[in-house]
UniProtKB/TrEMBL annotation:
<keyword id="KW-0479">Metal-binding</keyword>
<feature type="binding site">
    <location>
        <position position="114"/>
    </location>
    <ligand>
        <name>Mg(2+)</name>
    </ligand>
</feature>
<keyword id="KW-0963">Cytoplasm</keyword>
<comment type="subunit">
    <text>Homodecamer; pentamer of dimers.</text>
</comment>
<dbReference type="GO" id="GO:0003864">
    <property type="term" value="F:3-methyl-2-oxobutanoate hydroxymethyltransferase activity"/>
</dbReference>
<feature type="binding site">
    <location>
        <position position="83"/>
    </location>
    <ligand>
        <name>3-methyl-2-oxobutanoate</name>
    </ligand>
</feature>
<comment type="similarity">
    <text>Belongs to the PanB family.</text>
</comment>
<keyword id="KW-0808">Transferase</keyword>
<dbReference type="GO" id="GO:0000287">
    <property type="term" value="F:magnesium ion binding"/>
</dbReference>
<protein>
    <recommendedName>
        <fullName>3-methyl-2-oxobutanoate hydroxymethyltransferase</fullName>
        <ecNumber>2.1.2.11</ecNumber>
    </recommendedName>
</protein>
<keyword id="KW-0460">Magnesium</keyword>
<dbReference type="Pfam" id="PF02548">
    <property type="entry name" value="Pantoate_transf"/>
</dbReference>
<dbReference type="GO" id="GO:0005737">
    <property type="term" value="C:cytoplasm"/>
</dbReference>
<feature type="binding site">
    <location>
        <position position="44"/>
    </location>
    <ligand>
        <name>Mg(2+)</name>
    </ligand>
</feature>
<dbReference type="InterPro" id="IPR015813">
    <property type="entry name" value="Pyrv/PenolPyrv_kinase-like_dom"/>
</dbReference>
<dbReference type="GO" id="GO:0015940">
    <property type="term" value="P:pantothenate biosynthetic process"/>
</dbReference>
<feature type="active site" description="Proton acceptor">
    <location>
        <position position="181"/>
    </location>
</feature>
Amino acid sequence: DFEKMNITKIKKSKNNKKLTVITAYDALFAKLFEEIADMILVGDSLNMSFAGKPDTLSATLEQMIYHTNAVCTGAPKSFVIMDMPFGTYINKDEALKNCIEVYRLTNAAAVKIEGGEDRADIIKHLTSNSIAVMGHIGLMPQYVRSEGGYKVRGKTHQDENQLIEDAIAVEKAGAFSIVVEGVMSNVAKKITEVVNIPVIGIGAGNVTDGQVLVWSDMLGFFEEFKPKFVRHYLNGASLVKDAVNQYRNDVQNSSFPSREEEY
Ligand code: KIV
Ligand code: NA
């Protein structure tokens, strides 16, 4: 019962259907998620999980476009969102120029931009030029160096008010949906109630209009540590290591390849 998503269906799902969002960085995995997830996000988290960097900041537009093309090719039926990497939307003109480039070079349905009130004018400029924008507020990984770390948001009354202002500003600027990351669940609930566009949570409790997880986190491929908000649906790392160990054993004792696997 899969149906391809579009902006109208996504907006209509508010108060109607919970949205399931997963990241993907390549065609192989995108194909696996294609008819299951409502949206696929090509997250700049790939700079950490796949490029092994300490944060998302060094991802480039070219790299994001390369991965987005792979995802769109592998999952042509999916609604694919591309993360605009750090430094590619520093002002209205740069942002629009770069988003037009993304639309020209990929089949991405939308882009995602981190920022609240501080970036509302940029989001407005994009949406008024026919770019579909997903917002991203709360804990914003592209702010890690300027904030001095990753901090859960919404713990003070002042921060709660700021987050609500951010959500309203992003909605007013024309975003079709907002990711709310690393926010106290009671505050995420208020944000979800105050805006009329779907709020997609990550580390923000279960009251939001949907959830997003990084695929390699939820499938257990990242072993170093498990953030509190991640649920492991597969022990990916141990399954892979067991399989590769078996392969090595078979190579060492010459049981691979067998006669049936020979020419
Ligand atoms: O880069 C990413 O994967 C993201 C999600 C965690 C929302 O931005
Ligand atoms: Na991201």
